[in-house]
Amino acid sequence: MLPNYASPVEKLWYWTFRLVCVLVLVFLMSPLLAIIPLSFSADSFLVYPIKSFSWRWYAEFFGNGEWTHSLKNSFIVAPAATLLATVLGTLAAVGLTSSNFPGKSLLMTVLISPMVVPVVIVGVGAYLFFSPLGLTNNYLGLILVHAALGVPFVVITVSATLSGFNTSLIKASASLGANPLLTFRKVVLPLIAPGVVSGALFAFTTSFDEVVVTLFLAGPEQVTLPRQMFSGIKENISPAIAAAAAVLILFSTTLLLTLEWLRGRSERIRTAKA
Amino acid sequence: MNAPLTAADGEPLKKKLAREQRLKQFKAIALVAPLGLFLLLTFLVPITSLLFRSVDNPEVVTALPHTSQLIRAWDQRGLPSDAVYSALAEDLARAKADGTLADASKRLNMEISGYRSLLMRTARKMPLQLAAGESVRDHFIQIDERWGDPDHWHAIARNAKSWSPYYLYRSLDLRENKSGVPELTPVNERAYLSIFGRTMWMSLWVTVFCMLLGYPVAYWLANLPKRQSNLLMILVLLPFWTSVLVRVAAWIVLLQSEGLINSGLMALGIIDHPLQLAFNRTGVYIAMVHILLPFVILPSYSVMKSIPPSYVKAAISLGDHPFAAFWKIYFPQTLPGVAAGALLVFIMCLGYYITPALLGSPEDQMVSYYVAFYTNVTINWGMAAALGSLLLIATLALYAVYSKLVGTDRLSLG
After folding, report:
1. Do both B256 and B395 map to the same domain?
2. Which residues constitute the domain of residue B4?
3. Do A124 and B44 touch (CB under 8 A)?
4. In a domain? residue B144
5. Quick one: residue A136, left, alpha or beta (phi over 0 = left, psi -120 to 50 = alpha)?
6. Is the pLDDT of residue B100 over 70?
7. Same domain, B262 and B349
8. pLDDT by residue (tens digit) across A158-195?
9. Rounded Cα gap, residues A155 and A114, in angstroms
10. CATH 2.40.50.140 fits A65-273, yes or no
């Protein structure tokens, strides 16, 4: 806070600084706020001012076969990829934090690398490698690569949660006669659940947003929502895109709130332990 | 003398402990193995095979096996021997029949334009019908005089092995001269160095803008009371969680010539005709900065949160000017974390494809665009693989620096 003995220069600096920060936050939010009202426009062009209100673009989004098909595909591919990434990533994170073994940090670097390798390279690589195997133009290939892209997030969040995990709980459980599987299910998993779920949410959005790999691997049958939006933006930008955008913004808000709630919960668990 | 400690069953404790440790290690590896195997098959092997494809050069060897074999013994001076001409005649006749000629002629056409029609035309005249006393070489030159031009034979000789640095050289605007040494291509044929340069340049600017805008916001949020900062943090996180395509679409709506920004500025009388903000470099910069800004703000925020405010207070109480205290005490403490964030943003920028593709002009496309272009549009996988490999090498080199600086085990999300 600014003390009341601050000099004019300090006052000016203080307010300029705040103004800059507020403008940056406005910059961050403005596209989201600008596109939502347009989804309610009766006009067929995405321009302001909005002359009259209408639900017609929502009717188009939820009624048109192309959009509903892509929405359905996204809800097939993303959950499947998330499940795969979460199961494999959680097991690996448990393994990575449970013991030291040679090459561990190198292995970690490799497991994280799908996050930094340019996604076009992942897409082209998968396309050229999968097409002789018959894994292009079908759901399986798409799900596998989307899962690979989501894995780093699960590994990172679950490892972070496990690093605050009290390992004597495992010993306590074992000394009371539980086998390792029961211990994992009843002791470890409930405690690391916030980390697992937030990793899963990251993996889900990764797949749900993914368009580049989909461009290479998906056939017309597997067009996902982002892929449909991509061609929509490229060809003719109709207000149905604004409706799709508004629905997705609502969706990401829900995801964000879930994640924040989970973060708060895991923080409480951590502080309660300390 | 001390007897070694033993467990209840009489086994030395040391041995038992070592076994227990090994078992634990084995279990850990067994837990990581499924994911390792999964990534190997869906990620590592496809990318490695892409790397190999950048030097893969099978077309000429497949279509013209005998010619390839014989021409390797050629001393590269004058024209090859009659045996090579005969081998070519034999190969062309076979390649025409089994359909491998098309790929080879496409490949040789990249070396010298017009080669495709030359090969097709010659293949139509196969099998050879030599007049009495005529040499094979003369007959070929009679079919087309280009068979008397050593350059056309050099092109075959360069491709007579099943791998070649051709695509990698071309990605760097190099070509092999007659003695096989790489040299820069003529200025009017250069393209890729400037694309790599542009990719670096654009990534650099996006990173700089992100730092300039992100640092103050992170500082502000880190020094606000928790309640307020949590609330304002939502304004950073919400765009972060929103689909990139939604944001690109929204920026088009805002930036297009009838868009909100242009009509607003015109209504205020600041401008009298619309500014070109979308479908050029400006639009790409705006959208990329918007997408990547949270990647600067979030890590910077957590670094700044961990710096006790008492240091700066101490400096000020010892007579330092607040600006000087910030610059000398606070800023250096944030530098490692913020620099790591900037490096990560730069790495992510290098691979950008969607945003420039949708919001930029042809002059704003980055390397990824050309990788996709050669894969989908011109079906030149060698070129796609070579450009992709160079991009991958640049990215991985920077990622190695990053993980050395930060340590991947300390990586966290937000």
Report:
1. yes
2. 1-41
3. no
4. yes
5. beta
6. yes
7. yes
8. 988 888 788 888 889 989 999 888 998 888 888 888 88
9. 12
10. no
Cβ of B249 within 8 Å of Cβ of A245? The answer is yes
Q: Do B34 and A229 touch (CB under 8 A)?
A: no
The residue of B49, B202, B246 whose CB has the most chain A CBs within 10 angstroms, and thus the best one to mutate to test that interface, is B246
pLDDT at A1: 58
| The length of chain B, given as a count of residues | 414
pTM, whole model, 2 decimals? Answer: 0.89
Q: How many CA atoms lie within 13 A of B191 on its CB side?
A: 11
Shared domain for B36 and B134, answered yes or no, is: no
The answer to whether A117 touches A198, Cβ cutoff 8 Å, is no
CB within 8 Å: B243 and A233: no
Residues of A in contact with B381 (CB under 8 A): 128
Q: How far is CA B78 from CA B66, B87, B149, in A?
A: 20, 18, 9
Contact B243 A208 (CB under 8 A): yes
- CA-based nearest distance A239→chain B, Å: 10
- pLDDT band per the 50, 70, 90 thresholds, residue B414: very low
- CA dist., res. A227 & res. A233, Å (int): 10
- Helices B192-223 and B226-241 pack at an angle, to 10 degrees, of 150
d(CA B67, CA B104): 13
Q: Does residue A99 belong to the interface with chain B, where contact is any CB pair within 8 Å? A: yes
Chain A contact set for B263 (CB, 8 A): 47-48
CB contact under 8 A, B31 and A95: yes
